[in-house]
Structure formats: structure tokens, C-alpha cells
Write a structure and sequence with these properties.
By secondary structure, this protein is mainly alpha-helical. 67% of the residues lie in helices and 0% in strands. The chain is built from ten helices and no strands. Helix 3 crosses helix 6. The longest helix has 32 residues.
């Protein structure tokens, strides 16, 4: 077979591919944007933090609904990054779906989930009945009291949250920033940390702690399979189970209570 021609960079100005630009872009998107969204979505908490730091005369209050700064921003970011990846000839589009590798990885994903699901259930029980962090009524609340909500979460969460986050924090992240972060432990570690940092708009440390091991699992699955769909499927089953157990309380902005 003839050797395929080398893939070229996407038709963007050269500036957008320099190392300096990539560092600025990475810092803006993955380090600075999440706390800005946190401040805009919960301005009363952000303003209180500013006062605690001795900063007066400034407020993050915009008068807009707090939800406007969470899912709409995630959707816009997801679509922008998805379009970039689709247009970039150096990116293998099969990585966005790759159903074959999902099928190959499915037994491992389900076995690991089967081991960790009881652990997640125990953590939820412990937080509800042995700490003041989760209300006792929150343990298994959705399947006990609001099963229809759990059904809607099961249907919608994979496509409006799990898969978009795997595009933004796995497919785009590993492809776009490999030139500055390499292909080893550095990019993997920063990917895991920035996935946790993505949840800073929830305004509680449990959300950050919960998503650290989740980030490890999803990042390793993406690296093994090169399938965003596989990582998205895994993200979805853990997320749905977390909501069913009661841990969804910590990744819902209505539970924001500050640090």
C-alpha cells in the first residue's frame, strides 16, 4: 500500500501553535476558567472570600441565573473543542468514537466498576451516617424517593455531561497539549488534577476529592483505548451510580456551601 501523506497542522495562524501560546491557552482554559465560573455561579460565596482576603469594592454578582455559567459554558467549550478536533487533520477522528475499542475494554471496565461500586456505596453511607457532610436523607435518596429523576439522569447524563467532559478533558487535552506536556507522567498527572479542578464550581472539597480517583480511572481508560466513547461510557456509569448512592449531592451547585 502507498504511504499516506503526512498530516499537516490545522489551518490556524502559526501563533496558535507556538509553545508560549499553548501554555497561555492551557492555563486559561484549565486553571483560570473553572474558578472564574465558580465565582460567577456562586457570587455570594466568591464575594465573601474576597472580603476574607481584604478585597473590597468588587463583586462577582451579575444578576444572571447561576446555572447559566455551568452547563452552557461546558456545552460551548465542548462544541468548540469538538469542531477543532474534527477539523484538525493531525487528530484521528476515530478517537472520538472508536466503538471497537470500547467493546474490547468493556469487560475490564465492568469488572473494575463491579469492585468499586460497593466501595462508593459504603463511602456514601459513611458520609451520611458517620459525618455531617451528607444529610442522612441523601443516602440512596433518588432511588428511594425520586426514581423518575434517576431515570432522567441515566438517560441524559452520559450525553450532556460525561461524554462532553471526556472530549474536553481527555481527547482535546491529550492531543492539543502533547507538544508542551509530553506523552508521559506529566501530561497524565496534570490531566487528572485539572479534571478534579473542573469541579471547583461545586464549592465543596468533597467534589474535588471524589473526582481525583475518578480522573485517574477515566484518564487511564482513554490512554489504553484511545477511545473517548470508552472513557465517556465509564464516566457515565460511575456518575450515575454516584447519583444513585447520594454522592451527586456534592457535584450539584445547589449544595454549594463554600470551603
Amino acid at each position: 500500500m502507498p504511504t499516506p501523506p503526512p498530516r499537516s497542522s490545522p489551518p490556524l495562524p502559526k501563533l496558535f501553535h507556538t509553545r508560549v501560546w499553548l501554555w497561555i491557552e492551557w492555563t486559561t482554559l484549565y486553571i483560570l476558567t473553572p474558578p472564574l465560573i465558580a465565582a460567577l455561579s456562586q457570587p455570594h460565596l466568591a464575594d465573601r472570600l474576597l472580603l476574607d482576603l481584604g478585597i473590597e469594592g468588587f463583586s462577582f454578582e451579575t444578576g444572571l441565573p447561576s446555572g447559566l455559567f455551568i452547563f452552557p459554558v461546558l456545552l460551548l467549550t465542548f462544541l468548540t473543542m469538538l469542531l477543532y478536533l474534527r477539523a484538525d487533520p493531525s487528530f484521528e477522528n476515530r478517537r472520538l468514537w472508536n466503538l471497537a475499542d470500547l467493546k474490547n475494554a468493556l469487560p475490564r471496565i465492568l469488572i473494575v466498576f463491579g469492585i468499586l461500586a460497593p466501595v462508593i456505596l459504603f463511602v456514601s453511607w459513611f458520609l451520611a451516617f458517620r459525618t455531617p457532610l451528607l444529610p442522612e436523607s441523601g443516602f440512596l435518596r433518588l432511588p428511594r424517593e425520586l426514581p423518575i429523576v434517576l431515570v432522567f439522569i441515566t438517560l441524559l447524563y452520559p450525553w450532556v455531561s460525561a461524554y462532553p467532559q471526556e472530549v474536553t478533558h481527555r481527547a482535546f487535552f491529550f492531543h492539543r497539549y502533547q507538544p508542551i506536556l509530553g506523552d508521559g507522567r506529566l501530561i497524565l498527572g496534570l490531566n487528572i488534577l485539572t479534571f478534579s479542578w473542573l469541579h471547583i464550581p461545586m464549592w465543596n472539597p468533597i467534589a474535588l476529592l471524589m473526582t481525583l480517583p475518578a480522573g485517574i480511572i477515566f484518564a487511564l481508560t482513554y490512554r489504553r483505548t484511545t477511545s473517548t466513547l470508552a472513557a465517556g461510557f465509564e464516566h457515565a456509569i460511575y456518575g450515575i451510580w454516584a447519583f444513585a448512592c447520594g454522592l451527586g449531592y456534592f457535584v450539584f451547585t445547589g449544595s454549594a456551601n463554600g470551603f
